[in-house]
């Protein structure tokens, strides 16, 4: 009997190890730098986003796989957190049935280009802040390999400031818009209803939705996992606010999709409201809603300071005091984007009133 105990212990140890490593197997693919010597590069950019950094690696090592799939569903504990953000009272069994139906329509496996020593994936994450007006960032944004846009953010009529290229468009039902056949829909579900809406939009109501103009390429749909939302809320934001904003979730997600990340169109106006470049906000007291806007902004600034992203702060009117400080006047920012494949220098005249620091380091 005593001789069997070491054997049983060994079997249990192996089973535990298999569980741990299977959970982290996707991280081995995406974050090779965590397991490579520090002098090896995971991309061909001049400076790779995921090169070893203790602060960033500590944040990212806890990450689950970001996208839902039939083999990457969530735990009941994560479900209970997720349903709480929108006070959805329906149960875990219904959620699982809904997810099963989703993947009868959309691709069960998400395909995106992963880091490679011979690739440099440059990305522009384009928010919707009013500071994009007059920024003239359009050509710079379109230069990137990947352009990620969020919610209603239009390009038509705003090309000079926001460009017209879109690779990934992040949306949920209330912000849905038509996409062309080459643009990925990155769907953010905040409740079971959102997943059911996605199913209805592309099954029995297909003819109706076609008439109403609701269009996207079903082969290019990617669905964010509620586990990733919880991870960002707990690990990045330390549970500040009720849940992360769509913009901040998108920014953290971009760290998985890209080797170089440039961020545009984030930040509140002088009254602390998240205003938009394409419309006037009606509720001047909304501020940042249920989201921890100030904490999110501080993280963006820290990522910029740590040279993990470039944060382009856009334009403000002269002498406007913002929640994030008072700035200087007109500046000409020379932005250099380097990689082993490209070398482009773009000089952009930018009004930097109302912001702290340089446009990009």
Automatic annotation (TrEMBL):
Its EC number is 2.4.3.2, 2.4.3.4. InterPro entries: Beta-gal_alpha2-3_sialyltrans (IPR051757), Glyco_trans_29 (IPR001675), GT29-like_sf (IPR038578). It is a single-pass type II membrane protein. Pathway: Protein modification; protein glycosylation; Glycolipid biosynthesis. It catalyses: ganglioside GM1 (d18:1(4E)/18:0) + CMP-N-acetyl-beta-neuraminate = ganglioside GD1a (18:1(4E)/18:0) + CMP + H(+); a ganglioside GM1 (d18:1(4E)) + CMP-N-acetyl-beta-neuraminate = a ganglioside GD1a (d18:1(4E)) + CMP + H(+); a beta-D-galactosyl-(1->3)-N-acetyl-alpha-D-galactosaminyl derivative + CMP-N-acetyl-beta-neuraminate = an N-acetyl-alpha-neuraminyl-(2->3)-beta-D-galactosyl-(1->3)-N-acetyl-alpha-D-galactosaminyl derivative + CMP + H(+); a globoside GalGb4Cer + CMP-N-acetyl-beta-neuraminate = a globoside MSGG + CMP + H(+). The keyword Repressor does not apply. It is an enzyme of class 2 (transferase). The keyword Secreted applies. Keywords: Disulfide bond, Glycoprotein, Glycosyltransferase, Golgi apparatus, Lipid metabolism, Membrane, Secreted, Signal-anchor, Transferase, Transmembrane, Transmembrane helix. One of its GO terms (cellular component) is Golgi membrane. One of its GO terms (molecular function) is beta-galactoside (CMP) alpha-2,3-sialyltransferase activity. Coiled coil: none annotated. One of its GO terms (biological process) is sialylation. It is found in: Golgi apparatus membrane; Golgi apparatus, Golgi stack membrane; Secreted. Belongs to the glycosyltransferase 29 family. Homodimer; disulfide-linked. Homodimer formation occurs in the endoplasmic reticulum. This is CMP-N-acetylneuraminate-beta-galactosamide-alpha-2,3-sialyltransferase 2. It comes from Astatotilapia calliptera (Eastern happy).
